[in-house]
Amino acid sequence: MRFTYQARTKNGELQTGNVEAANKAAAIQILSSHDLFVLSVESAEKVGFLDRIFSFAGGIKRKDLLVFTRQLSTLLQAQLSLSDALKTLRQQTTNQALREVISEISDDISSGLSFSQALERHKEIFGEFYVAMIRSSEVTGSLDAAAIFLADFLEKEDDLVSRVKSAMTYPLIVVGLFIIVAGIMVVDVFPQLKPVFESANVSLPFYTLALINSGDFIARWWIAILIFIVLLFLMVIEYFHSAEGKALWDDLKTRLPILRQIYLPLTMSRFANSAAVLIKGGVPLDQAIEITAESIDNTFYREIFRQISEELRKGSLLSEALSSSPYFPPLVSQMVAVGEQTGQLEQMLVRLSNYYTRETDKIVGNLVDLIQPMLMIVIGLMVGLLFASVLLPIYNLSTSF
């Protein structure tokens, strides 16, 4: 297989290229044997849609990953070695798919790979952020602290997702029922009423005509419509898994108002926490920012952080590099400037992380509270339009006699 990589030489020079290896772990070993500090390794071969479907159906849910990470952090805090902790987790895990993954990770570590390298072989399960945080902790020697942070982070993420699901369950049930009722009326009821209205020369509102015509169209071409919808869905999923699609989605997350309100504080929190962990571990600031870039699941911000890292190597201050970019709130550069002036950059980054974590929780909480009433208003309008399409022509028909 062919892999593309980014790595640093002993002199700190950035090196990119391709390497041939049997798998990603072998590619990392080859690069490490050439005294390179590996930043990222990605397969250069296109992954098919069906392959992603089968890998997704592995049976490992977010809750399983949360429990695994929480138990791992507890065992590491108890001073167990990583290999012993993984063996214990493998015995305790009831999820068969996760048990196999833990077994593979344990075998990879026994064969000489680092924990992050072993996790990277299962990045579709753990994600880039998870792997990058573990890699950062290996540089600083604070694996237990990183495991605690990841467990807390996954717990908050799971709580937010659960709140969103809970808020949307009832509206989605109502939407589903409305679609069923509307489909029956459009396909079955309206076509039967159409001859009655035509024989009585009743003028129909444009929305009633639109529903009647759409019902005729759906009844005639429903198989083609269903195939088109399925193909369109698969094409959209495939596009957003491509490099171009990912770049577009990452760009939209930084531009669209509601997505930006959620994504910006989340990104700032990840940046501040990862950088604080690395600086605390004694990693030089330019390297800390570059490693931090790998913990950001956005190609747009990832490139910005790499540019900031290059500016730091040229002698710029972190606060100056951040303030020159329009993609960072002024608060970030201001607090970083205070940290640089007082020699407490790490503490300021921790405060930034805590602040933006609270901001993310508050924004998502407000949006969750708004989802249900907004959906109910939209459903109410759609139900009103549907019944108006039927009742108004019937009323006109009754007045014509």
Describe the structure.
The protein is mainly alpha-helical and 401 residues long. The chain folds into 2 domains: 1-45, Ubiquitin-like (UB roll); 164-401, Up-down Bundle (Receptor-associated Protein), CATH 1.20.81. Helices cover 78% and strands 5% of the residues. It has 16 helices and 3 strands. It has helices at residues 24-33, 49-56, 62-77, 82-92, 96-110, 115-120, 123-140, 143-199, 206-241, 243-255, 257-280, 285-294, 299-313, 318-323, 330-342, 345-399, and strands spanning 2-8, 14-20, 37-43. It has a 3-stranded antiparallel sheet, with helices on both faces. Strand 1 (2-8) and strand 2 (14-20) form a beta hairpin. It starts with a strand and ends with a helix.
Largest sheet: 3 strands, antiparallel
Task: Kindly provide the name of the CATH class of the largest domain.
Answer: Mainly Alpha
Q: How many structural units, i.e. domains?
A: 2
Order of helices and strands: EEHEHHHHHHHHHHHHHHH
* Mean pLDDT across residues: 80
* C-alpha Rg (nearest Å): 27 Å
CATH homologous superfamily placement of the largest domain:
Type II secretion system (T2SS), domain F
DSSP helical segment count? 16
Point out poorly predicted stretches: 46-58
> Approximately what portion of the residues adopt beta-strand conformation?
5-15%
CATH fold label of the largest domain:
Receptor-associated Protein
